[in-house]
Design goal:
- The structure holds two protein chains of two kinds.
- By secondary structure, chain A is α/β, with parallel strands linked by helices.
- Chain A folds into three domains: 5-175, Aconitase, domain 3 (2-Layer Sandwich), CATH 3.30.499; 182-264; 267-382, Aconitase, domain 3, CATH 3.30.499.10.
- Chain A is built from 15 helices and 14 strands.
- Chain A has helices at residues 5-11, 17-32, 51-65, 94-109, 120-123, 138-146, 157-166, 193-206, 221-234, 256-266, 284-293, 309-318, 320-326, 356-364, 375-382, and strands at 38-40, 43-46, 74-77, 134-135, 168-170, 182-186, 210-214, 239-243, 250-254, 274-277, 303-306, 329-332, 350-353, 369-372.
- A five-stranded parallel beta sheet of chain A has the order 12-11-10-13-14. Chain A has a four-stranded parallel beta sheet with strand order 8-7-6-9.
- In chain A, strand 7, helix 9 (221-234) and strand 8 form a beta-alpha-beta unit.
- Chain A is globular and about 65 Å long.
- Chain A starts with a helix and ends with a helix.
- Chain B is built from four helices and six strands; from the N terminus they run E-E-H-E-H-E-H-E-H-E.
- By secondary structure, chain B is α/β, with parallel strands linked by helices.
- Chain B is globular, with a radius of gyration of 13 Å.
- Chain B has one domain: 3-Layer(bba) Sandwich (Glucose Oxidase, domain 1).
- A six-stranded mixed beta sheet of chain B has the order 1-5-4-3-2-6, with helices on one face.
- In chain B, 24% of the residues lie in helices and 22% in strands.
- In chain B, helix 2 (63-72) packs parallel to helix 3 (87-96).
- Classes of the chains: A alpha/beta, B alpha/beta.
- Chains A and B meet through helix 2, helix 3, helix 7, helix 9 and helix 14 of A and strand 1, helix 1, helix 2 and helix 3 of B.
């Protein structure tokens, strides 16, 4: 990769340790993706906030880094481990709370906006089409590349952080107008958000950088986010295009057999002790939708609903949160299902969710059994 | 072998080879280095002190922190060899100073599980 004189000097450490570190990351990621140079970016979205995911090593790294590092572009943040307003209601250790607060303080000290959301594309104004950004949260990277027509690599936590500190990112394939080299033909009729999530999980496994999908029309927000999240969990693919399949790329079918394989990989229980909704976090449309589905109904067991703080505030004004709380939902902001410390295998054996991404991490990281079903069935079976 | 160096360094160790991509955040225990995804071909094996050979990283962007944590907890591989580089593994190895090289498909196939090898990126040696 070609560097400018300034970039070269920063890499050699002539501009301080922070920039040396940032350029070391950018050069490695640039080499890894055959980028020829770095390009300016205007917005970085960082992952690596939840203490459960980054641990002591991450907490110490950020604490040291924040002593003199400052972000130089708009930088937003993924969810952390708990809801700031409700932390006392959950049985979290003091160590967890303290370490989590240290992580949040480090990010704020560096000038990062504490948005604690994995759906920045729903709570911030989006820049013009074609704008180069650096998004680490995988569902968000795929969403902005595919739906909002921004340009980002499927950044890692460190590459997005390096972008935030330098305002630059490697000019890799996803930032260019690349053509997908594979088309997945969706063969499942009348898909719901779970089927679409499994399609995404399948796509992540078989696709390269980008993929074309035929046989899917008019994705609603819920299914669209489910597709992005599923794809981000299983693969490296950072973009999808919905088309009619008439392109000349290689074709592969997503049929009932493939779907059953994925279902069997992720589903491990026939019921859940509790329900989680919001992986990715729910936006205002989904909260509104949920409120109407729950009219005159109540959950028979605990149901945790994750949404960004900004969405919860809007929903409260409109009255949706009253409706959800009446129906028995626990509304949680600042955090999400993925690797949440709020679900502990000591108290919970199994969780019901409609999220493929949630299922993967609940199963592998939280070590609880997962019962996957679409929202319509959750409402049908779990409310009265 | 034709190596492409992503992160420079030298290492000597026993190959632990996987044919499955790795989601570091979900599949690897950051304290012990043990693979905990039961659907993975390295399930219950530890990546600690190995030359970890796998196709590429997948999934969560936070996997980069997992790689850094493995190093801090002395449970990291001494080097990684992939067939395709991805940003999560590349940036994690860059920050943790774990040598990372990319090899061709044929070379990947020829690397044998359990065999001891030396890596020296300065000499382009495997």
């Amino acid at each position: 990769m070609e560097l400018t004189k300034d970039e070269e000097a920063a890499l050699k450490g002539e501009k301080g340790e922070t920039l040396e570190l940032a350029y070391r990351i950018l050069v490695a990621t640039g080499e890894a993706t055959d980028a020829e140079r770095l390009v300016p970016i205007t917005w970085a979205h960082l992952s690596g906030v939840n203490y459960n995911t980054i641990g002591d090593a991450g907490e110490e790294f950020l604490s040291k880094l924040s002593q003199d590092a400052k972000v130089i572009v708009k930088t937003t943040l993924n969810p952390m481990g708990f809801d700031i307003d409700k932390v006392s209601k959950y049985n979290l250790s003091e160590n967890f709370i303290e370490k989590q607060q240290s992580i949040c303080n480090s990010y704020e000290k560096m000038g990062v906006t504490p948005s604690f959301s994995c759906i920045p594309y729903e709570i911030f104004d989006l820049p013009e089409k074609g704008t180069q950004v650096s998004f680490a949260e995988t569902n968000a990277a795929i969403y902005v590349n595919s739906i909002a027509h921004l340009k980002t690599n499927k950044e890692s936590a460190f590459s997005a952080l390096a972008s935030a500190l330098t305002g630059k990112s490697p000019y890799s394939d996803l930032r260019k107008d690349d053509e997908p080299n594979l088309t997945i033909r969706m063969k499942i009729d009348e898909p719901n958000e779970l089927t679409i999530g499994m399609l995404g999980f399948f796509a992540g496994k078989v696709a390269d950088n980008s993929v074309s999908i035929s046989g899917v029309k008019d994705l609603d927000k819920r299914s669209c986010k489910s597709l992005c999240a599923g794809m981000g969990t299983s693969g490296t693919c950072g973009k999808f295009v919905l088309d009619d399949g008439s392109n000349s790329s290689e074709k592969i079918d997503f049929d009932k057999k493939e779907m059953d394989k994925i279902y069997d990989e992720l589903n491990s229980a026939d019921h859940g002790d509790l329900i989680t909704l919001g992986s990715p976090q729910l936006g205002l449309d989904e909260i509104s939708d949920l409120a109407s589905m729950l009219k005159n109904r109540s959950f028979k067991k605990r149901c945790m609903v994750f949404c960004p703080r900004a969405v919860q505030e809007q929903a409260r004004k409109i009255g949706y949160t009253n409706e959800l709380e009446r129906a028995g939902c626990e509304i949680l902001s600042d955090c999400c299902t993925c690797l949440t410390p709020l679900i502990d295998k000591k108290d919970v054996d199994s969780v019901t969710t409609n999220s493929v991404k949630g299922a993967y991490y609940l199963k592998n990281s939280n070590k609880v059994a997962v019962n996957l079903k679409p929202l319509s069935e959750i409402i049908r079976d779990e409310t009265k | 072998m034709t190596l492409k160096t992503i992160v420079k360094g030298k290492a000597k160790g026993i190959i632990l080879k996987s044919y499955n991509p790795i989601n570091f955040l979900g599949a690897v225990d950051k304290k012990t280095g043990v693979i905990r995804d039961e659907n993975h071909d390295l399930f219950n094996k530890s990546v600690k002190d190995t030359i970890l050979v796998f196709p590429h990283g997948v999934g969560s962007s936070v996997g980069a922190y997992t790689i850094y944590s493995l190093k801090s907890n002395n449970s990291a591989p001494c080097a990684m060899i992939c067939q395709k580089a991805d940003l999560t593994v590349a940036s994690g190895c860059a920050l943790a100073n774990i040598p990372l090289v990319i090899v061709t498909k044929e070379e990947f196939e020829s690397l044998e599980n359990g065999k001891e090898i030396n890596i020296d990126t300065d000499k382009n040696l495997l």
